[in-house]
Amino acid sequence: MRRNRVLAATVAGVISAASFTTTALAAQSQPTGTGQFRTWHAAQAAARFRLMRPTQTYGLARNGRILVIKCAMTKRLATKRLVLVSYGPTPFRTLMLSQNNSGGPCTSIGNTKKLGHVRVHGVLATLRGLCGRTGLRSCSSRNIVLFLIWRRHGVYYVASSFGEFPRRLIGFARSLVPVR
Fold this sequence. Notes:
Elements: H1 2-27, E1 35-37, H2 40-47, E2 52-53, E3 66-70, E4 81-90, E5 93-100, E6 113-120, E7 123-130, E8 145-152, E9 155-162, H3 166-174, E10 177-178
Antiparallel strand pairs: 1-3, 2-10, 3-4, 4-5, 5-9, 6-7, 7-8, 8-9
């Protein structure tokens, strides 16, 4: 019972953060290099760095527009951008991708457990999960939040999922191709 409440609170937190971001972006004007974009090309132009887009989303459609916001965890806010995109119609099955040009995290993923390492586009990525602690599901469960984190050519990537096994999250990350 407690696990279900913690899980529901985690999913609700992710959804409310996404809603807050969407609401905040609606008030921003596009000339600042931030906003909501329908196409990857337009998002890349606003972010002012080379973006990667997934080619494998396992049947999940993009959930909303591509968000470009300022990176909040760097001192050079004027030039560093965070790009966010989400796939999946429900909170029970989602894939998300964030990428930024700060070379480090723009957001905190909190207290997660390291689950291993895999190669993504030739670099070592770390798989982490919100699991295996008191009140949380087992790390072998499908219903946990997973994060795959790596850095390549000065860009910091975080692919995340809920309701997916690690192999799907890894496949999603490995399917990334440059936006042309």
